[in-house]
Structure formats: C-alpha cells, structure tokens
TrEMBL record:
Originating organism: Streptomyces crystallinus
Enzyme Commission identifier(s): 4.2.1.113
Keywords (A to Z) from UniProt: Lyase, Magnesium, Metal-binding
Stored Gene3D superfamilies: Enolase-like C-terminal domain (3.20.20.120), Enolase-like, N-terminal domain (3.30.390.10)
PANTHER family named among the record's database cross-references: O-SUCCINYLBENZOATE SYNTHASE, O-SUCCINYLBENZOATE SYNTHASE-RELATED
SUPFAM superfamilies, per database record: Enolase C-terminal domain-like, Enolase N-terminal domain-like
One Pfam family from the record: MR_MLE_N
Keyword Magnesium set for record: yes
Taxonomy of the source species: Bacteria, Bacillati, Actinomycetota, Actinomycetes, Kitasatosporales
Chain's gene name: menC
CDD domains cross-referenced by the UniProt entry: NAAAR
Cofactors demanded by this protein: a divalent metal cation
Name of the protein described by the UniProt record: o-succinylbenzoate synthase
Amino acid sequence: MRIDQIDLYVIELRLNHVFRASTHGAGTLRHVVVRAEADGLVGWGEAPTPVDPYYTGETTDTAWSVLHDFLAPSVLGHTWDTVEEFTALYSRVKANNFARGGLETAAWNLLAAAHERPLSALLGGAARSAVEAGVSIGMDRDPGRLCDTVQRHVDQGYRRVKLKIGPGADLDVLEAVRARFPTLPLMVDANCAYTLQDTPHLQKLDAFDLMMIEQPLAWDDLADHAVLQRNLRTPLCLDESLTSAKRTRRALELGSCQVVNIKPARLGGLREAALAHDLCLAAGVPVWCGGMHDFGISRAANIALSALPGFTLPGDNSGSDKYFDRDIVTPETRAEHGLIAVPDRPVPYEVDMGFLAAHTRRHARLTATDSPAVRTR
C-alpha cells in the first residue's frame, strides 16, 4: 500500500454543554482530521487534542505542526503492508502521541478497507456485537443540578457514571449523588488535582463504594500512585500517566493502579493501545476505553478497540448526541439502552464533506510528489 495524498483539516465543533474538569474546561473543540488516499482507497484519522496544554501537553496547534511537517512527509510515497511497517516510517518522531495516533488511525482504516474486514477484527477483537457505554459528567458545584444530570443519563441507560472532582468539589458532590443513587456504578476522575499529602482526605472517598478513583495524582507519576493505592481500599485507575505500553507495564509492576484507562490517542494509536491491553489482560487487570470528546472517526475506532476481551468495564465513548448537535460522520455513534454496536463493516461511516467544509478552520494538502523533506533536529 502506498499513500500518495494526505489532507489535514482543523475541524471546529461546539459542545452541547461546557465541560469542566479540575484543571481545564472546554466549550468548543478543534481536532485535526486526517484523510489519506492509497491505492484508490481512503482512510480517515483524527487527533482529538484539547486546544490547551493542560491534559498531556499536546494541543491542536502542536498536532497540526507535527502532522504537517514531520509525520505526513515521512509516510507519503512509501510502500507498507502492515501498521508496524507504517509506524516504523516515522519512528524518529518522539512523543506527540495524539498526532501520531491520528495518522495511524487513517492507516488502520485503509487496511480495513483493503482487506474488507471490520477494524475490530483486524485488531483481534472478540466476537461482540456491542460494548457497554458509560458517561462522563463535568464538574458542577450545584449538587441538585448535578444529580438531575446524572438522572438524565441513567434514564438513557448508561451503565456507569463518572464524575469529575477536585479539592473542594468532592465529598459534598459524592454525598449528594450517593444519597440519590445508592447503587449506581459510580467512579470519579480527579485529573491530577491532588498530591500524596492529600491521602487522609482521599481515604474518605472509600466510604462511597466507588468503582475506582481515576488519576488523583500528577500526570507523569507512577511511584506516588503506588504508595496511595496501598493506603486506599478503592481501586486507583491511571489515565494521563500511561503514555505507552512500556509505562503501563511499569505501573502494573509497581502496583500503581488496579484498573487502566486505555485511550488510543493518549497512547499514540490503536497498535500501542492493543499492546497495553494485552499486558493488562495477562496481569488480570481490567481496562476500559477512555474518550476525548471524540468526533465520529476517533469514536468509531475506540469502539472497535473496545471489542478486545480485556475491556470488561463500560467506557467513556457514549453517543455522539451527548456532545454535539451533529457529528462529522453518518451514521453517528449512538448508545441504545447503555450499549453501543461494534461496527461490523470495514468502513462503517461516511464523512459528510459539506459539513466538514463548513466547519474547517484550516486545511492543507500534501502529496508524494511535492511534500517537503522531513526535517531533522
């Protein structure tokens, strides 16, 4: 397979509701969308970056720069047959996982089209027709309003609710939600808002029968999480800290967590995500698939990945209608009674090019004949 043309787009969509976490918030998203042409086929990818550097450091602008100046020129005009061969073409590029994952997703989708097999099958997924969907709810300091939001999603059938928390917005929130929903599968996500010195406070969360506490400590930490886990009954789950399969293996060895959130974008693509999954499966550690307010391209890839056998907990990839009035693909991802169907076709959606054009804020086309040489630093 040989990619002869890559189009990059910055697509802007407005969220239905402003989403707030302990370190950041968002009302409008700008993701880099990748369109790759090879052998008469088209593969789409997406880098679902935040617009600011408060999650893992990448932004829309950094993803655009790395894709445009380094990743796309590295693969244009080169022949490859597997994703391993494809990613080797840009192996010199360090970090920048969202950008790398956006390009790699396009390659996976090209292979799915070429082999006429669903992406889930290429990844080695189990024969699942659907995966369980959870929902992530942003911070809201009004307990009554937050409980009403939870109720709305419970009524829609979502199998698990995740609440964003932070210092000063944790115990009161959980007391209100647990009082109204005593048996609801519930977890919390701190997005790195605490330190190890907060251990006595975090121990109070053990009283709320939580499925897990996600990423309470620093985004690049493994050691302190291991200490904290030994002092909590509630399982810890890592997100920001796990940027590769190697880091995932180290976290399991240290005992830094008992659950793992696998986000393909954070890990640099589906291949690395599958490797992290395999490590967790071998260690008996449950995993679930996180999300980044993904557009339909990345969302469909996440659902395909979630068909792997280790994904035993509901993920964050709920229906597109929870986030947007309209997605860039048709059909959109939908959750029905808390379940999302695993795509069973090689190309399970069409990108609405008219809608895409109307929401494009930047566009560039690179070809094998005129793309710049890869720069070195």
